[in-house]
Specification:
The protein has 12 helices and 11 strands. The chain is an alpha/beta fold. The chain has a domain of 93 residues. It has a 7-stranded mixed β-sheet with strand order 6-7-8-3-9-10-11, sandwiched between helices. The chain has a 4-stranded antiparallel β-sheet with strand order 2-1-4-5, covered by helices on one side. A hairpin with a 2-residue loop joins strand 4 and strand 5. It is a peripheral membrane protein. InterPro entries: AAA+_ATPase (IPR003593), ABC_Ni/Peptide_Import (IPR050388), ABC_transporter-like_ATP-bd (IPR003439), ABC_transporter-like_CS (IPR017871), Oligopep_ABC_C (IPR013563), P-loop_NTPase (IPR027417). This is ABC transporter ATP-binding protein. It is found in: Cell membrane.
């Protein structure tokens, strides 16, 4: 399992620097209503060839975190602190020219809405070739040939013909494949996939996830897979980071979190998922309430207004003190390990089957 450090303070050195290291990342937006703390003290590591799944509801800080890694936030309205190191290079505070050399080359992103991300005015082939020509100095002819190669790799039929098509001439699944081709055209060492299977049917979802796994084996890329669906990462990710209200609340390997989740929020995510083995009339267990406002988050644990446990079970700490996330396999929760294990075994595990 990839070592994932604590979100509280600077983690202890692990003996060798990880490929991607994020430490105490904080991202704040200035709005007319006040300061939005979109990411509030997040840390994690990612090694080459590994996949980290980041899961959580909309507004939990997943995409904001990865846009900060890529340096895509508007500096006029965004304040970013903490440290982001990619292969030993500091990205936080780096000049735009430095980031431009890295984006699309050493690091790339697959956006969740391919129809919006792809320009309707240019052919798919031109859009795939553009970053390749920019970063390698290749000619237009070489760029076109590279685009055809990448369309072939991602499974687009008749790539020598479809290279001249426009995005609207592609189906949803084909557009997503084209986005993956564009992201991988320069063989990036870090690939960020932001909800890559959103709005795709189940069959196409499986094809896209299998494609990511195959291409990772070929290119050796480190992948961050952002999703709100734990089922999506079950067969793809090595480790999981569960986020809520801008903070990490649980981390561990995929197997550990899916079979022995330790945080009440993770229990809620798992309990609200339908299962193929369940009866069609079986009730689901949605998480009550809504995610908190990041303008004015609740005191103590941000999840406490929606938690299954009354605050007094943890001695009142839930509403008074924000829980830390210790090193290693851990959950940021004031409940004792015994309390959580008992509740999970008696109440949650029967729901999950």
């Amino acid at each position: 399992m990839t070592t994932l450090p604590t979100t509280e303070g600077t983690p202890a050195p692990t003996g060798s620097d990880p490929f991607l290291s994020v430490r105490d990342l904080r991202v704040q937006f200035s709005t007319e209503d006040g300061i939005v703390k979109a990411v509030d003290g997040l840390s994690f590591n990612l090694e080459r060839g590994q996949t980290l799944g980041i899961v959580g509801e909309s507004g939990s800080g997943k995409s904001v975190t990865n846009l900060a890694v890529l340096g895509l936030h508007n500096p006029k309205s965004t304040t970013i602190s903490g440290e982001i190191h990619l292969d030993g290079q500091q990205l936080t505070g780096a000049r735009e020219k430095t980031l431009e050399k890295l984006r699309g080359n050493k690091m790339a992103m697959i956006f969740q809405d391919a129809l919006t991300a792809l320009s309707p005015y240019y052919t798919v082939g031109r859009q795939i070739a553009e970053p390749y020509m920019k970063h390698t100095g290749a000619s237009k002819r070489e760029g076109r040939q590279r685009a055809i190669e990448m369309l072939t790799k991602v499974g687009i039929p008749q790539p020598n013909l479809r290279v001249d098509d426009y995005p609207h001439q592609f189906s949803g699944g084909m557009r997503q494949r084209a986005m993956i081709a564009m992201a991988l055209v320069c063989n990036p060492e870090l690939l960020i996939a932001d909800e890559p299977t959103t709005a795709l049917d189940v069959t196409v979802q499986a094809q896209i996830l299998d494609l990511l796994k195959d291409l990772q084996q070929e290119f050796g890329s480190a992948i961050i897979l952002i999703t709100h669906d734990l089922g999506v990462v079950a067969d793809v990710a090595d480790d999981l980071l569960v986020m809520y209200a801008g903070r990490a609340v649980e981390r561990g390997s995929v197997k550990e979190i899916l079979t022995q989740p330790q945080h009440p929020y993770t229990w809620g995510l798992l309990s609200s998922m339908p299962r193929l083995s369940s009866d069609v009339n079986e009730a689901l267990y949605p998480i009550p309430g809504s995610p908190p406002s990041l303008l004015n988050p609740p005191s103590g644990c941000a999840f406490n207004p929606r938690c299954s446990f009354p605050a007094e079970v943890a001695g009142g700490l839930c509403t008074e003190k924000r829980p830390a996330l210790p090193d290693g396999r851990a959950a940021a929760c004031h409940l004792s390990a015994e309390q959580r294990q008992t509740f999970f075994t008696e109440q949650i595990k029967p729901r999950l089957g």
